[in-house]
User: What shape does this take?
Amino acid sequence: MASQTKKLSLILIPLLLSFLTSSVQSGGIAVYWGQDGREGTLKSTCDSGNYVIVILAFLTTFGNGKTPVLNLAGHCDPSTGGCKSLSTDIQACQAKGIKVLLSLGGGVGSYTLSSASDAQSVAEYLWNNYLGGTSSNRPLGNAVLDGIDFDIELGGTNYYDVLSKSLSSYSSKGRKVYLSAAPQCPYPDAHLGQALSTGLFDYVWVQFYNNQPCEYQSGDITKLTNSWNTWTSKVDASKIFIGLPASTAAAGSGYIPPSTLESQVLPMAKKSSKYGGIMLWNRYYDVLNNYSGQVLKSV
Assistant: This one.
């Protein structure tokens, strides 16, 4: 009998360990790239091996009849066709399995949607110039981006639901258009509430920084925890990420030391089946602080 019990234990223990391992949520790191010429190339960002998603920041002008404008800071000038050279880097990232998205908006720019038809026009423009459509003058060349990110912090709050539905409808043309959003942590987000209510977003990276009512503060994760639980319970998205500054210089508040992230925040966040990982603002500050390198194995 003892021999049979020992044999049974040898069978059950590996199965139990396998179950426990598989039940722990694992995620990845998303990063914003494009707003600092000192952050290195897009290819070097992907070659680091630290990220699963890279978000190109930003399309700072769009909507209300305005000609859309891509602003990649010191990297290239789209007005002269200088950003088309990024096509090779984008394709190199994608060859590694890294998704590359284009972010709309940001904290500085001139953008708003004036009507449902305006939103549909913006979606058509994005499809033809950055996604799977065709255009005679694609700003990033022939590379086809994986999707669109909504970082809406200015302008009006209406019609972003129409924009998300219009963009999502292009997935029927054969290649999925991924949608992501970067709402502020106070729920609901003033600009993205309507869009997120569509349930069409694959990734939502909540900005748990520069928002003291819902961010980490001096060793206390209570406010962040409460906000995280609200977002994961109320937002219908495939995966939700913890948005963080990559260094103390990257934001006015909300920086979480890597050791605290690993020991307190991630164990809390991984209890949700919607946990997707962390988002970092931005690549330049991550290069300086190596935040992603410090926490990569724990995320």
